[in-house]
Amino acid sequence: MAHVQVSKISLGTVNFGIPYGAAGDKYQVPEREVEKILAAALEYGVDHLDTAIGYGIAQDVLGRVLSSIGKDKFRITSKLLPIPEGDASSTIRQKFIEAIEESCKRLKVDSLDGCLLHRATDASGEMADTVFDALNVLKHRGLVKKIGISAYTEGEIRAALSRGALDVVQVPFSIADQRLLKSKTLDLLKSGGTEIHVRSVFMQGILLQDQTERSPIFEPEELALRNLAICCRQNNLTPLQACLGFAMQVKQIDQLVLGVQSAEQFYQILQAAQVSLNVAQHFVACDWKDEKLLNPANWDLMKADLIS
User: Fold this and answer.
1) How far apart are CA 268 and CA 265, in angstroms?
2) pLDDT digits (tens, 9 = 90+) for 242-256
3) pLDDT above 90 for 300
4) What is the rounded CA–CA span in Å between residue 49 and residue 92?
5) What gap in Å lies between CA 186 and CA 195, rounded to an integer?
6) What angle do CA 166, 174, 33 make, to 5 degrees?
7) Mean pLDDT calculated for residue range 52-81
8) Nearest Cα residue to 77 out of 135, 125, 145
9) Which pLDDT value is given to residue 170?
10) Could you give phi then psi for residue 298, rounded to 5 degrees?
11) Are 99 and 80 in contact (CB under 8 A)?
12) C-alpha–C-alpha distance, residues 171 and 152, integer Å
């Protein structure tokens, strides 16, 4: 195993502002622990933060912590709330400007590295031209450097690209979810110069759990999960190392957005990221086939169906 840089790692901040998680109890990180996590990030050279207006008090927490450790030491990408149903196109530009100015105020920074639409379809609907115009105004005013979308599917990405240029796209990607790699969508984005950020690298912790810990809703993917466990044993890797290494070795990916609950957990991730995966092809057969299970937004409803 060769050592690699951890510069691809970006800190997700959703659980800095709201209780969040799927593998176990939902958890919100205390502010004192956020300070320790960001200090660990600086120690290892991790300098990108991913946040959103919709992440509760996350931006307020980040603003206070960054004020004490150095606001200029991190690049920050934030996401805009979905455009409300029936919103007038004439107000979108001003609302975007006000939203980003408010985020900068809460974060105590002058500008953002990136601004994403939290709902990708806002970039391809009937007001797409207005939306792209508003996003570009943010760039021209120096409020953000890059604009883009947070997407879930190839269809959302292609629809948005047909309406305007995207500097950055955030998408799900993991050993379990290789759809955008196998469909060449990552290649398409890269060929257009788009920066690619990926989330759900651990499928919210499900890929790191033992079989006895997982919810029965994941039984349809038991073969893929068994294949993952076998590949880890054969290659002397932990599931954490395998999940990180698989994503790290995909050359098209620029940032892995990872959420952590503590500085100790973050150190474990940073240590696991020090190894490169030389046997990535062994994990290709570990992908999931059930697209409904690939979207964590469906999990609570599926669990409720099991109970009922």
Assistant:
1) 5
2) 999 999 999 999 999
3) no
4) 26
5) 10
6) 90
7) 95
8) 145
9) 98
10) -90, -15
11) yes
12) 6
Structure tokens at 49: 């933060």
Q: What is the DSSP letter of 298?
A: G
Q: Which residue has the tokens 């697209």?
A: 291
CA gap 97, 91 in Å, rounded: 10
DSSP 46: -
What are the angstrom distances between the C-alpha of 171 and each of 71, 101, 140? 27, 25, 25
- E strands, 173-254, are 195-199
Tell me the C-alpha to C-alpha distance, in Å, between residue 190 and each of 167, 185, 186, 244: 10, 9, 6, 21
Going through 175-216 in order, the beta strands assigned E by DSSP cover: 195-199
d(C-alpha 24, C-alpha 15), whole Å? 13
pLDDT for res 23: 54
CA distance 60 to 46: 20
With contact defined as beta carbons under 8 Å apart, do 154 and 185 qualify? yes
Q: What does the alpha-carbon distance between residue 308 and residue 306 come to, in Å, rounded to a whole number?
A: 6
Weakest mean pLDDT among 99-103, 168-172, 208-212? 208-212
**pLDDT tens figures, 116-131:** 999 999 999 899 999 9
Question: Is the separation of the CB atoms in 74 and 66 below 8 Å?
Answer: yes
Report the number of secondary-structure helices (H) and strands (E) in the chain: 12, 8
Tokens of 138: 């943010």
Tokens representing residue 106 in the block: 């809460």
Alpha-carbon distance 268 to 93, whole Å?
A: 42
